[in-house]
């Protein structure tokens, strides 16, 4: 795909009204980033500022080089789960090295345009992915609701009321931003036992600095970090490309997935060089950004830049923001993310589609690993599709007494799943003098199908039957000539 400069410029600025919406939505995205980034930093076993620095760097780089405007990326998600084992075993420097290597792998993935692999992800898997994320976003708020008194629940209720009712009064300022300001003002004016952002972890007090990972430049280091880097790259790409597809659906627009993969890789290389962990697309923050007007690259940039602005110069004020405000925002995001229509579709759509969707949700929620859930969903989709196509293959037999010829008419797709059923449809000890296999309405897809045909023909001929193939299409004929040339003979 050629670079369209006019479109790229429009993705940055399409008018003052759009710019204002992007800026405000990006600011909301920043506050939504903070608790999740800090939480996943603890999961990875690293200091919170490592995740916050990464989110700042990733936000800037992905805004410039990414392929999906309005998508927010940061240091969170299943990447942290992969990173935890490496940090425990070898320490933070090796994690930074793995982050850089993972970014290089993602750049290669994008340049090779391997994003086409996402075409194998069915709608059922995408729906399951979204629903699982909504559940995970909500469940991530549960720890903030345990061991607290009624003040927290009251503030969350007030926050949700503001979020859902404020748009009836004004849509100039996103209601989540109003929620943050109001709840912070209330907690300051009326002191009460509430957890604040300062209680979530140590916040950065300086800008990130460029430095190469402090690891030995030797083959042993590469052997240590490569497996983790590959896993981080795969998980990050999966989450980002799936999130990009969700934004495509929400905004009814397209995006360059290969460029998004390349941009994510560049962002992770930069994150590793500035002391940050690898990141990826963040579905909750992205959906929130889009819901509140974010459409351009400016919203992505603001989410990253404003994160550092509020974390360093405004650190004393941000530290006072009650966690209840962030919980209210994330509860709203989880509710709006969940595809409620999919519950109704369970009764209307084919049962196998429902099974795929529910399996994707169940595995993702059980493992907290998006890649595992999607992998199971894709595998089930493939198995169900192969089973459906297999059942459509037919072999009908007729007998011509005058010429003592039996004709086997094959229709449908013959491949690894249907090859055995195809072979079973033939009487290998047929007493007819001649056998004609009509493949006019059939297609041989792989070597398993050709091997089955070769075996049928060979066994019939071994009993003295004259076997003839007719109607073989060009593609199937090439496959047969290459892997079973004697089949075409009489």
List the helices and strands and how they pair.
Blueprint: H1 5-12, H2 16-44, H3 48-65, E1 73-74, H4 78-90, H5 92-111, H6 123-139, H7 150-165, H8 175-189, H9 219-251, H10 257-273, E2 280-281, H11 283-291, H12 297-311, H13 315-318, H14 323-337, H15 341-348, H16 351-367, H17 370-391, E3 394-400, E4 405-414, H18 419-424, E5 434-444, H19 447-462, E6 466-470, H20 474-483
Parallel strand pairs: 4-5, 5-6
Antiparallel strand pairs: 1-2, 3-4
Key traits:
single chain; elongated; 20 helices; 63% helix; alpha/beta; 6 strands; 8% strand; 4-stranded mixed β-sheet; two-stranded antiparallel ribbon; 490 residues
Word description of this protein:
The chain has a four-stranded mixed sheet with strand order 3-4-5-6. Strands 1-2 form a two-stranded antiparallel sheet. The radius of gyration is 29 Å and the shape is elongated. It starts with a helix and ends in a 7-residue tail after the last helix. 47% of the residues are buried. The chain has 20 helices and six strands. Helix 2 packs antiparallel against helix 3. By secondary structure, the chain is an alpha/beta fold.
């Amino acid at each position: 795909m050629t670079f369209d400069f006019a479109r790229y410029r429009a993705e940055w600025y399409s008018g003052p009204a759009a710019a204002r919406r992007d800026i405000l939505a990006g600011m909301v995205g920043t506050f939504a980033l903070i608790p999740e980034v800090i939480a996943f930093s603890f999961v990875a076993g690293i200091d919170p500022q490592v995740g916050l620095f990464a989110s700042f760097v990733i936000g800037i780089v992905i805004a410039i080089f990414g392929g999906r405007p309005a998508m927010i990326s940061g240091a969170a998600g299943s990447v942290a789960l992969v990173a935890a084992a490496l940090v425990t075993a070898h320490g933070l420097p090796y994690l930074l090295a793995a982050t850089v290597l993972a970014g290089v792998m993602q750049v290669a993935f994008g340049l090779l345009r391997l994003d086409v692999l996402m075409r194998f992800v069915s709608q059922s898997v995408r729906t399951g992915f979204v629903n699982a994320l909504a559940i995970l976003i909500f469940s991530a708020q549960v720890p903030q609701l345990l061991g607290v008194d009624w003040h927290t629940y009251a503030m969350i209720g007030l926050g949700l009321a503001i979020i859902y009712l404020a748009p009836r009064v004004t849509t100039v300022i996103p209601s989540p931003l109003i929620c943050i300001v109001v709840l912070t003002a209330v907690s300051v004016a009326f002191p009460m036992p509430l957890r604040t952002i300062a209680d979530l972890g140590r916040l950065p007090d300086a800008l990130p600095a460029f430095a190469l990972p402090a690891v030995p430049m030797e083959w042993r280091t590469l052997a240590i970090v490569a497996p983790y880097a590959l896993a981080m790259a795969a998980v990050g790409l999966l989450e980002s490309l799936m999130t990009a597809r969700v934004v495509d659906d929400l905004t009814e627009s397209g995006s360059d997935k290969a460029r998004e993969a390349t941009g994510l890789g560049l962002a992770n290389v930069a994150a590793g060089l500035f002391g940050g962990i690898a990141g990826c697309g963040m579905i909750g923050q992205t959906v929130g950004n889009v819901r509140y007007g974010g459409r351009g690259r400016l919203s992505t940039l603001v989410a990253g830049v404003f994160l550092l602005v509020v974390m360093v110069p405004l650190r004393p004020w941000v530290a006072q923001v009650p966690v209840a405000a962030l919980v209210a925002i994330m509860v709203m995001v989880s509710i709006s993310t969940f595809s409620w229509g999919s519950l109704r579709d369970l009764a209307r759509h084919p049962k196998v589609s429902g099974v795929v969707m529910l399996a994707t949700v169940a595995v993702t929620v059980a493992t907290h690993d998006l890649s595992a859930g999607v992998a199971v969903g894709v595998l089930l989709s493939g198995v169900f599709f192969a089973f459906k196509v297999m059942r459509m293959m037919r072999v009908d037999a007729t007998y011509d007494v005058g010429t003592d010829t039996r004709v086997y008419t094959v229709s449908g797709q013959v491949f690894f799943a249907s090859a055995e059923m195809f072979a079973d449809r033939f009487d290998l000890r047929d007493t007819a003098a001649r056998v004609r296999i009509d493949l006019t309405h059939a297609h041989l897809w792989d070597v398993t199908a050709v091997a089955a045909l070769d075996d049928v023909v060979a066994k019939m001929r071994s009993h003295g039957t004259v076997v003839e193939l007719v109607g073989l299409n060009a593609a199937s004929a090439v496959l047969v000539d290459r892997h079973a040339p004697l089949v075409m003979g009489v």
